[in-house]
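Note to self: user wants both folds in one dump. Writing first protein now.
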Amino acid sequence: MQETDSKHFTIRKAEKADVPVILDFINKLAEYERLSHEVVATRADLERYLFGDEKVAEVLIGYEEELPVGFALFFHNFSTFLGKPGIYLEDLFVLEEHRSKGYGTKLLASLAALAMERNCGRMEWAVLDWNEPSIEFYKSLGARMMDEWIVNRVTGESLRELAGKY
């Protein structure tokens, strides 16, 4: 993937030294989504799963000049129907004071270009149902809301109990 440059905005793949910036973005996103109480991620976790031997996800960081202003955290999934990998966007966030400058679009476009480069069949992500600004933003880019699908999640004690049934 090539770096994107538009006037004073650039996008690059995150490196291990960016972990504090990534964690800061995660905390700011959680605050925006009213989910700060759910953040338990640590620098060690991010180093392990984003840059270590157990790497399972990647991050793009958007910069205005030298200032990190947004990020996209993603990983590969697989579509059995398409028979191809896809990209799942776990988080997209642009600092509030830097919104409406096209940076979110550029981050998504950069991720779409990466999906094409990697021969992915699609990109997917979730959005909170109350987040109308994001929903409208995604629709403006051609995203289709998948209302017929319900996200399922098992965590914590429920995850342990389910694993115990094995």
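First done. Writing the second protein, which came from a different request thread.
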Amino acid sequence: MSGLPNCPSCHSEYTYEDRGLIVCSQCTHEWSLVIRGDAGHEGIKDANGNTLNDGDSVIVIKDLKVKGSSSSVKKGMKVKSIKLIHNANDGHNIDCKIDGFGAMKLKSEFVKKA
């Protein structure tokens, strides 16, 4: 036995771990075992070391070039209602909408809590 939980979708016992997610080999359902508020979970921190939460507002601390655009996100721009992405492989762990740019992902190291 692997010690992993059964699939919450089809209740199959044939599950495996893949890049931080649990995957069902029967129905291909994927889910995370990370539970919000878990003492073992460190959280995502801003450039000053403050813990960020879903729905927070942040301020960009340096100009950020936007891939595929000639303009950039300017230092001091306020971003409202962020959504955190845990287990982000590329480091872009904040999902947000920025006025004038639309939906994009940011790295928490380039923002501070507002």
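Dump finished. Worth passing along: Residues 35-41 have pLDDT under 50 and may be disordered.
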